[in-house]
Protein: Carbamoyl phosphate synthase small chain
Organism: Pacificimonas pallii
Amino acid sequence: MTEATPARPPSGATGALILASGEIIWGRGFGAAGHAVGEVCFNTAMTGYQEIMTDPSYARQIVTFTFPHIGNVGVNDEDTEADTPHAVGCIVRETVTEPSNFRSAERFDEWLARHGRIGISGVDTRALTRKVRLEGAPNAVIAHAPDGKFDMDTLRAAAREWSGLEGLDLARDVTREDTGGWNDGPWQLGQGFAAGPQHGPHVVAIDYGAKKNILRRLTNAGARVTVVPAETSFDEIMALKPAGVFLSNGPGDPAATAAYAVPVIQQLLAADMPIFGICLGHQLLGLAAGAKTAKMFQGHRGANHPVQRLSDGRVEITSMNHGFAVDADTLPDGVEATHTSLFDGTLCGIELTGKRAFGVQYHPEASPGPMDSDYLFQKFVGALS
Ligand SMILES: NC(=O)CC[C@H](N)C(=O)O
Protein backbone atom coordinates (compact mmCIF):
# COMPACT_ATOMS: atom_id res chain seq x y z
CA MET A 1 0.00 0.00 0.00
CA THR A 2 2.69 2.45 0.87
CA GLU A 3 5.85 1.82 -1.16
CA ALA A 4 6.76 3.89 -4.18
CA THR A 5 3.58 5.95 -3.83
CA PRO A 6 2.89 6.44 -7.55
CA ALA A 7 1.23 9.77 -8.26
CA ARG A 8 -0.59 8.14 -11.18
CA PRO A 9 -3.63 6.15 -10.05
CA PRO A 10 -3.52 2.40 -10.51
CA SER A 11 -6.17 1.20 -12.94
CA GLY A 12 -9.70 1.57 -11.55
CA ALA A 13 -8.66 3.84 -8.68
CA THR A 14 -11.18 6.64 -8.25
CA GLY A 15 -10.43 7.41 -4.62
CA ALA A 16 -7.26 8.53 -2.89
CA LEU A 17 -6.12 9.43 0.60
CA ILE A 18 -3.20 11.82 0.29
CA LEU A 19 -1.27 12.11 3.54
CA ALA A 20 0.57 15.29 4.53
CA SER A 21 3.80 13.28 4.15
CA GLY A 22 2.99 12.94 0.44
CA GLU A 23 2.13 9.25 0.68
CA ILE A 24 -0.93 8.19 -1.31
CA ILE A 25 -3.30 5.36 -0.44
CA TRP A 26 -5.51 4.43 -3.40
CA GLY A 27 -9.02 3.01 -3.41
CA ARG A 28 -12.42 3.34 -5.04
CA GLY A 29 -14.24 6.59 -4.41
CA PHE A 30 -17.92 6.70 -3.42
CA GLY A 31 -20.29 9.38 -2.16
CA ALA A 32 -19.57 12.92 -3.32
CA ALA A 33 -16.88 13.72 -5.87
CA GLY A 34 -14.24 16.28 -4.89
CA HIS A 35 -11.79 16.51 -2.03
CA ALA A 36 -11.64 17.58 1.62
CA VAL A 37 -8.92 18.00 4.21
CA GLY A 38 -8.96 16.59 7.74
CA GLU A 39 -7.21 14.43 10.33
CA VAL A 40 -7.34 10.67 9.78
CA CYS A 41 -8.61 8.69 12.75
CA PHE A 42 -9.95 5.18 13.21
CA ASN A 43 -13.08 3.97 14.95
CA THR A 44 -13.40 0.37 16.14
CA ALA A 45 -17.19 0.28 16.65
CA MET A 46 -18.86 -2.61 14.80
CA THR A 47 -22.20 -0.82 14.44
CA GLY A 48 -23.43 2.77 14.28
CA TYR A 49 -21.68 4.16 11.21
CA GLN A 50 -24.50 6.66 10.66
CA GLU A 51 -24.31 7.93 14.24
CA ILE A 52 -20.53 8.23 13.91
CA MET A 53 -20.63 10.11 10.61
CA THR A 54 -23.24 12.57 11.96
CA ASP A 55 -21.55 13.18 15.35
CA PRO A 56 -20.51 16.87 15.18
CA SER A 57 -17.35 16.02 17.15
CA TYR A 58 -15.99 14.47 13.92
CA ALA A 59 -15.85 17.82 12.09
CA ARG A 60 -12.57 18.05 10.10
CA GLN A 61 -11.90 14.35 10.61
CA ILE A 62 -11.67 11.45 8.16
CA VAL A 63 -12.95 8.29 9.83
CA THR A 64 -11.34 4.94 9.05
CA PHE A 65 -13.79 2.21 10.04
CA THR A 66 -11.96 -0.89 11.27
CA PHE A 67 -15.15 -2.94 10.83
CA PRO A 68 -14.94 -4.07 7.18
CA HIS A 69 -18.60 -3.94 6.10
CA ILE A 70 -19.95 -0.39 6.25
CA GLY A 71 -23.22 0.69 4.65
CA ASN A 72 -24.86 -2.74 4.69
CA VAL A 73 -27.92 -1.64 6.73
CA GLY A 74 -28.35 1.63 4.81
CA VAL A 75 -29.31 4.88 6.50
CA ASN A 76 -32.52 6.35 7.91
CA ASP A 77 -33.74 9.64 9.36
CA GLU A 78 -33.69 8.48 12.97
CA ASP A 79 -30.25 7.06 13.77
CA THR A 80 -28.61 10.44 13.44
CA GLU A 81 -26.72 12.61 15.90
CA ALA A 82 -27.14 15.75 13.78
CA ASP A 83 -29.11 16.59 10.66
CA THR A 84 -26.11 16.15 8.37
CA PRO A 85 -22.85 14.19 8.47
CA HIS A 86 -20.00 16.10 10.09
CA ALA A 87 -17.02 13.84 9.41
CA VAL A 88 -15.54 15.09 6.13
CA GLY A 89 -15.21 11.56 4.81
CA CYS A 90 -14.71 7.90 5.57
CA ILE A 91 -12.45 5.06 4.58
CA VAL A 92 -13.78 1.52 4.44
CA ARG A 93 -12.55 -1.92 3.47
CA GLU A 94 -15.40 -3.37 1.38
CA THR A 95 -17.44 -1.81 -1.40
CA VAL A 96 -20.76 -0.43 -0.12
CA THR A 97 -23.49 -2.88 -1.19
CA GLU A 98 -27.28 -2.76 -1.54
CA PRO A 99 -28.62 -2.19 2.00
CA SER A 100 -30.49 -4.96 3.75
CA ASN A 101 -32.51 -3.72 6.70
CA PHE A 102 -36.22 -3.03 7.21
CA ARG A 103 -35.43 0.46 8.53
CA SER A 104 -33.21 1.47 5.64
CA ALA A 105 -34.50 4.50 3.75
CA GLU A 106 -31.47 5.21 1.56
CA ARG A 107 -28.12 3.78 0.50
CA PHE A 108 -25.16 4.93 2.60
CA ASP A 109 -23.16 6.02 -0.47
CA GLU A 110 -26.09 8.01 -1.91
CA TRP A 111 -26.70 9.67 1.46
CA LEU A 112 -23.02 10.67 1.63
CA ALA A 113 -23.18 12.06 -1.92
CA ARG A 114 -26.35 14.02 -1.10
CA HIS A 115 -24.55 15.63 1.83
CA GLY A 116 -21.32 16.29 -0.04
CA ARG A 117 -19.23 13.76 1.92
CA ILE A 118 -16.58 11.55 0.38
CA GLY A 119 -15.86 7.85 0.93
CA ILE A 120 -13.09 5.52 -0.24
CA SER A 121 -13.49 1.73 -0.25
CA GLY A 122 -11.07 -1.03 -1.10
CA VAL A 123 -8.48 0.27 1.35
CA ASP A 124 -6.40 -2.01 3.60
CA THR A 125 -7.95 -0.47 6.72
CA ARG A 126 -5.95 -2.74 9.03
CA ALA A 127 -2.70 -1.38 7.64
CA LEU A 128 -3.99 2.21 7.83
CA THR A 129 -5.14 1.71 11.44
CA ARG A 130 -1.75 0.26 12.33
CA LYS A 131 -0.10 3.27 10.74
CA VAL A 132 -2.22 5.69 12.84
CA ARG A 133 -1.40 3.66 15.96
CA LEU A 134 2.33 3.65 15.30
CA GLU A 135 2.83 7.08 13.78
CA GLY A 136 -0.06 9.13 15.22
CA ALA A 137 -3.09 10.58 13.42
CA PRO A 138 -1.96 12.16 10.12
CA ASN A 139 -3.43 15.15 8.34
CA ALA A 140 -4.66 14.20 4.89
CA VAL A 141 -6.85 14.98 1.92
CA ILE A 142 -9.56 12.52 0.94
CA ALA A 143 -10.33 12.71 -2.76
CA HIS A 144 -12.87 11.12 -5.10
CA ALA A 145 -12.48 11.58 -8.85
CA PRO A 146 -15.00 9.44 -10.77
CA ASP A 147 -12.89 9.84 -13.95
CA GLY A 148 -9.74 8.70 -12.13
CA LYS A 149 -7.98 12.04 -12.72
CA PHE A 150 -6.37 13.62 -9.68
CA ASP A 151 -4.42 16.87 -9.56
CA MET A 152 -1.87 15.44 -7.17
CA ASP A 153 0.23 18.57 -6.78
CA THR A 154 -2.78 20.55 -5.55
CA LEU A 155 -4.00 17.74 -3.31
CA ARG A 156 -0.58 17.11 -1.77
CA ALA A 157 -0.18 20.84 -1.10
CA ALA A 158 -3.63 21.00 0.56
CA ALA A 159 -2.74 18.09 2.86
CA ARG A 160 0.66 19.53 3.70
CA GLU A 161 -0.52 23.08 4.28
CA TRP A 162 -3.51 22.36 6.52
CA SER A 163 -2.96 23.58 10.10
CA GLY A 164 -4.22 20.38 11.76
CA LEU A 165 -6.75 20.20 14.60
CA GLU A 166 -4.50 21.69 17.27
CA GLY A 167 -5.47 25.27 17.97
CA LEU A 168 -8.74 25.05 16.02
CA ASP A 169 -12.02 26.15 17.61
CA LEU A 170 -14.55 24.14 15.59
CA ALA A 171 -17.43 24.39 18.08
CA ARG A 172 -18.18 27.78 16.56
CA ASP A 173 -18.74 26.11 13.16
CA VAL A 174 -21.16 23.41 14.33
CA THR A 175 -23.15 25.02 17.14
CA ARG A 176 -26.74 26.16 16.62
CA GLU A 177 -27.61 29.79 15.94
CA ASP A 178 -30.63 30.14 18.20
CA THR A 179 -31.72 29.08 21.65
CA GLY A 180 -34.46 26.48 21.55
CA GLY A 181 -36.34 23.86 23.54
CA TRP A 182 -35.52 20.17 23.14
CA ASN A 183 -38.34 17.71 23.57
CA ASP A 184 -37.30 14.32 22.15
CA GLY A 185 -36.70 11.35 24.41
CA PRO A 186 -35.36 7.91 23.44
CA TRP A 187 -36.49 6.11 20.27
CA GLN A 188 -38.49 2.88 20.32
CA LEU A 189 -39.49 0.62 17.46
CA GLY A 190 -43.06 1.34 16.36
CA GLN A 191 -43.27 4.41 18.58
CA GLY A 192 -40.53 6.72 17.38
CA PHE A 193 -39.12 9.27 19.80
CA ALA A 194 -40.77 9.59 23.22
CA ALA A 195 -41.92 13.06 24.31
CA GLY A 196 -39.85 14.81 26.96
CA PRO A 197 -41.25 15.64 30.42
CA GLN A 198 -43.62 18.59 31.02
CA HIS A 199 -42.29 19.10 34.52
CA GLY A 200 -38.93 18.49 36.09
CA PRO A 201 -35.69 20.41 36.55
CA HIS A 202 -34.70 22.80 33.78
CA VAL A 203 -31.31 22.03 32.21
CA VAL A 204 -29.62 24.50 29.89
CA ALA A 205 -27.37 22.59 27.50
CA ILE A 206 -24.54 24.57 25.90
CA ASP A 207 -24.20 23.28 22.34
CA TYR A 208 -20.55 23.03 21.33
CA GLY A 209 -21.62 20.38 18.78
CA ALA A 210 -24.06 18.33 20.85
CA LYS A 211 -25.04 14.81 19.84
CA LYS A 212 -28.81 14.48 19.80
CA ASN A 213 -28.73 11.37 21.93
CA ILE A 214 -27.19 13.29 24.82
CA LEU A 215 -30.21 15.60 24.80
CA ARG A 216 -32.53 12.57 24.56
CA ARG A 217 -30.84 10.95 27.58
CA LEU A 218 -31.18 14.20 29.55
CA THR A 219 -34.95 14.31 28.89
CA ASN A 220 -35.15 10.58 29.62
CA ALA A 221 -33.58 11.28 33.02
CA GLY A 222 -36.40 13.76 33.70
CA ALA A 223 -34.97 17.13 32.64
CA ARG A 224 -36.71 19.84 30.66
CA VAL A 225 -33.99 20.89 28.23
CA THR A 226 -33.19 24.19 26.55
CA VAL A 227 -30.25 24.24 24.14
CA VAL A 228 -28.20 27.41 23.69
CA PRO A 229 -25.44 28.38 21.20
CA ALA A 230 -21.80 27.89 22.20
CA GLU A 231 -21.13 31.58 22.79
CA THR A 232 -24.11 32.28 25.04
CA SER A 233 -23.12 34.53 27.94
CA PHE A 234 -23.43 33.79 31.66
CA ASP A 235 -26.19 36.40 32.00
CA GLU A 236 -28.17 34.94 29.10
CA ILE A 237 -27.89 31.46 30.62
CA MET A 238 -28.96 32.68 34.07
CA ALA A 239 -31.93 34.51 32.54
CA LEU A 240 -33.25 31.07 31.52
CA LYS A 241 -33.29 30.10 35.23
CA PRO A 242 -31.54 26.75 34.91
CA ALA A 243 -31.40 24.22 37.73
CA GLY A 244 -28.28 22.85 36.09
CA VAL A 245 -26.06 23.45 33.05
CA PHE A 246 -24.87 20.76 30.68
CA LEU A 247 -21.66 21.21 28.64
CA SER A 248 -21.80 19.22 25.40
CA ASN A 249 -19.33 17.28 23.32
CA GLY A 250 -17.91 18.98 20.26
CA PRO A 251 -15.12 19.07 17.69
CA GLY A 252 -11.70 20.69 17.64
CA ASP A 253 -9.16 21.71 20.26
CA PRO A 254 -10.67 22.41 23.71
CA ALA A 255 -7.90 24.91 24.46
CA ALA A 256 -9.11 27.03 21.52
CA THR A 257 -12.81 26.85 22.42
CA ALA A 258 -11.81 27.72 26.00
CA ALA A 259 -11.25 31.35 24.98
CA TYR A 260 -14.98 32.07 25.19
CA ALA A 261 -16.28 28.93 27.00
CA VAL A 262 -14.09 28.96 30.10
CA PRO A 263 -15.01 32.44 31.43
CA VAL A 264 -18.70 31.45 31.28
CA ILE A 265 -18.07 28.10 33.00
CA GLN A 266 -16.02 29.83 35.70
CA GLN A 267 -18.90 32.23 36.38
CA LEU A 268 -21.30 29.27 36.57
CA LEU A 269 -18.97 27.53 39.04
CA ALA A 270 -18.71 30.70 41.13
CA ALA A 271 -22.53 30.80 41.22
CA ASP A 272 -22.49 27.16 42.45
CA MET A 273 -24.44 25.99 39.40
CA PRO A 274 -24.61 22.19 39.05
CA ILE A 275 -22.65 21.25 35.91
CA PHE A 276 -22.22 18.05 33.90
CA GLY A 277 -19.81 17.91 30.96
CA ILE A 278 -19.29 15.23 28.32
CA CYS A 279 -16.12 14.94 26.21
CA LEU A 280 -15.38 18.50 24.97
CA GLY A 281 -17.64 19.71 27.81
CA HIS A 282 -15.56 17.69 30.29
CA GLN A 283 -12.34 19.11 28.82
CA LEU A 284 -13.69 22.66 29.11
CA LEU A 285 -14.74 22.01 32.72
CA GLY A 286 -11.18 20.80 33.41
CA LEU A 287 -9.72 23.92 31.79
CA ALA A 288 -12.12 26.13 33.77
CA ALA A 289 -10.94 24.45 36.97
CA GLY A 290 -7.29 25.16 36.13
CA ALA A 291 -6.15 21.89 34.52
CA LYS A 292 -4.56 21.62 31.07
CA THR A 293 -5.57 19.63 28.00
CA ALA A 294 -3.25 18.02 25.47
CA LYS A 295 -3.52 16.38 22.06
CA MET A 296 -3.32 12.61 22.22
CA PHE A 297 -1.10 10.56 19.93
CA GLN A 298 -3.84 8.50 18.29
CA GLY A 299 -7.01 9.25 20.28
CA HIS A 300 -9.78 6.93 21.43
CA ARG A 301 -12.68 6.10 19.13
CA GLY A 302 -14.89 3.06 19.44
CA ALA A 303 -17.69 1.43 21.37
CA ASN A 304 -15.87 -0.97 23.68
CA HIS A 305 -13.45 1.10 25.75
CA PRO A 306 -13.16 -0.11 29.37
CA VAL A 307 -13.13 2.64 31.97
CA GLN A 308 -12.71 2.18 35.70
CA ARG A 309 -14.72 4.16 38.20
CA LEU A 310 -12.22 4.91 40.93
CA SER A 311 -14.68 5.21 43.83
CA ASP A 312 -15.57 1.51 43.80
CA GLY A 313 -13.46 -0.11 41.08
CA ARG A 314 -16.47 -0.82 38.87
CA VAL A 315 -15.66 -1.15 35.16
CA GLU A 316 -17.88 0.50 32.55
CA ILE A 317 -17.63 -0.43 28.87
CA THR A 318 -17.93 2.90 27.10
CA SER A 319 -18.29 4.64 23.79
CA MET A 320 -15.45 7.04 23.03
CA ASN A 321 -14.52 9.69 20.52
CA HIS A 322 -11.75 12.05 21.49
CA GLY A 323 -8.32 13.13 20.32
CA PHE A 324 -7.56 15.51 23.18
CA ALA A 325 -7.65 14.79 26.93
CA VAL A 326 -7.35 16.55 30.26
CA ASP A 327 -3.80 15.91 31.48
CA ALA A 328 -4.09 14.07 34.84
CA ASP A 329 -0.77 15.53 35.97
CA THR A 330 -2.16 19.06 35.81
CA LEU A 331 -5.23 18.60 38.03
CA PRO A 332 -5.15 21.39 40.62
CA ASP A 333 -6.27 21.00 44.23
CA GLY A 334 -10.03 20.73 44.34
CA VAL A 335 -10.28 18.58 41.20
CA GLU A 336 -10.55 14.86 41.78
CA ALA A 337 -9.98 12.12 39.19
CA THR A 338 -13.06 9.87 39.14
CA HIS A 339 -12.54 7.57 36.13
CA THR A 340 -9.58 6.21 34.23
CA SER A 341 -9.11 4.38 30.92
CA LEU A 342 -8.12 0.73 31.32
CA PHE A 343 -6.55 0.84 27.87
CA ASP A 344 -3.89 3.44 28.56
CA GLY A 345 -4.55 5.00 31.98
CA THR A 346 -5.64 8.37 30.60
CA LEU A 347 -7.95 10.47 32.73
CA CYS A 348 -11.61 9.78 31.94
CA GLY A 349 -13.57 11.67 34.60
CA ILE A 350 -13.30 14.53 37.07
CA GLU A 351 -15.33 15.96 39.90
CA LEU A 352 -14.82 19.35 41.53
CA THR A 353 -14.64 19.05 45.31
CA GLY A 354 -17.19 21.13 47.17
CA LYS A 355 -18.98 21.89 43.89
CA ARG A 356 -21.79 20.11 42.12
CA ALA A 357 -19.77 19.76 38.92
CA PHE A 358 -18.42 16.70 37.15
CA GLY A 359 -17.44 15.57 33.69
CA VAL A 360 -16.54 12.43 31.76
CA GLN A 361 -14.29 12.08 28.75
CA TYR A 362 -16.34 9.23 27.29
CA HIS A 363 -19.91 9.08 25.94
CA PRO A 364 -22.52 7.78 28.42
CA GLU A 365 -25.21 8.42 25.79
CA ALA A 366 -23.56 5.70 23.64
CA SER A 367 -25.14 5.99 20.17
CA PRO A 368 -23.42 3.87 19.17
CA GLY A 369 -22.28 1.79 22.11
CA PRO A 370 -23.14 0.27 25.46
CA MET A 371 -25.33 1.99 28.05
CA ASP A 372 -23.26 1.07 31.14
CA SER A 373 -22.72 4.72 32.03
CA ASP A 374 -26.28 6.00 31.61
CA TYR A 375 -26.40 6.35 35.42
CA LEU A 376 -24.49 9.63 34.99
CA PHE A 377 -27.58 11.30 33.49
CA GLN A 378 -29.62 10.16 36.50
CA LYS A 379 -26.85 11.33 38.82
CA PHE A 380 -26.90 14.83 37.28
CA VAL A 381 -30.64 15.34 36.75
CA GLY A 382 -31.64 13.47 39.92
CA ALA A 383 -29.66 15.91 42.08
CA LEU A 384 -31.36 18.99 40.58
CA SER A 385 -34.44 20.53 42.07
N1 LIG B 1 -16.41 13.98 21.32
C1 LIG B 1 -15.86 15.12 21.72
O1 LIG B 1 -16.47 15.96 22.37
C2 LIG B 1 -14.43 15.36 21.28
C3 LIG B 1 -13.75 16.45 22.05
C4 LIG B 1 -12.49 16.98 21.37
N2 LIG B 1 -12.82 17.59 20.11
C5 LIG B 1 -11.50 15.85 21.19
O2 LIG B 1 -11.25 15.40 20.10
O3 LIG B 1 -10.95 15.40 22.16
Q: What stands out?
A: The pocket of glutamine is lined by residues 57, 249-252, 254, 279-280, 321-324 (CB under 6 Å).
